[in-house]
Amino acid sequence: MATACGRRCLATFGRWRPGRGAAAPSRAFAAVVPGVSQVDNKDEFLGRKPHRQHPGILQLPHVQLPQALADAAQFLLLECSDGHVEKQVQALTNYLWSRHLPVEAEELQRQAVHLKKKFLQHSAVDPAQTEEKLQGAVLSALRRSTYHWQKLSYDERLSLIYMAARLDGGFAAVSRAFHEIRARVPEFQPQTLMDFGSGTGSVTWAAHNAWGQSLREYFCVDNSAAMLDLAERLLKGGSESKKPYVEGVFFRQFLPVSPKVQFDVVVSAFSLSELPSKADRNEVVQTLWRKTSHFLILVENGTKAGHRLLMDARDLVLKGTEKSPLDPRPGFVFAPCPHELPCPQLTASKPLACSFSQAYHPIPFSWNKMPKEEKFSLVILARGFPEAMHRWPRITQPVLKRPRHVHCHLCCPDGHMQHAVITARRHGRDLYRCARVSSWGDLLPVITPSEHPPED
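The chain above was modelled as a monomer; its predicted structure follows.
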């Protein structure tokens, strides 16, 4: 199923060929150095475009669901509305956002050994007590202190509540990821897509919105039959008999078995966190990477847990020694990281989640009128070799615009974070204007000659 479009667009990825896990040896340092750094005008956009349209601008305006999808969602929810939907939607939203990853068996064992030693040292239990009673005390303490993760089983009712709670926000986050690929590799025209954990089908709608002219096959995988049925009804306008809005959509409960099957784009949106263990997540990520011929897109909640999960998946792919006999091309990070080094957000003294925000118009339910923001973390992995011109610093926090200066928090290609205060006098008019019109999640088109090392 892999197409030749990737081979045509591989030329845009350049000829950078270091070992995986190493920073790209370029002619530039990452940091913004006053008096030295300048706008990377390799594409000669200065003079042809205003600064507010510089090539690092990636933020989308308010995303809106296709009208056909919004109408179908409203129709299906009205069919089963019983007066308690709003409270159930809010409760599910809060639960999904506050959810943690399941505790691993090794961690539970470590905590149990620690508690047992603590009880014995502090005489929390009588040494004369039996081993059985001691184990009972340890288990009781673990139940009180350990997060109780439970797998969500989506029946018809819970699937509808999930649709009302997450359809529009999920669509916005995935649309932002697709937009980054389209903006940076406009010649990429995928023909096949696989969505793991497809849920309500928001990825299919967003992909059709982005590449509807070229996509001919959408392969949706979800273990919930109720979710697959709901996604199919949404495609048919809430009915079971109408013609689907998007052609070429296939629904399955299991991943394709054949190792020869690959897809141009593979997506997992808010699904890895639903797997019960790290071993299961690793197995799924490796399978998804084998199924990827060009781009693997992973999206999770914009929390520390979501970000750490994605960084584990990223490192698993980059450091993986497994070679596919059908596709030996290495992988690299297309977004958001401008490097393949350890995430500086996680190695900081106070770890932060690397997250982004996308504004969107929600489905106009009675309780859902005002524009919203979807906060999410993502990583886009690609096969091939990265293009040097895209190794620009990523803006990781909202840009603070002050009179005559701008504060930008940057993740740089050398694997470090930088808080840059950019002014026209110290950094030049072009760089200052580009920084001032940039937003959270954009790339700052800046280059610093290597003979000037970055400031601390």
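The chain has a mean pLDDT of 85.
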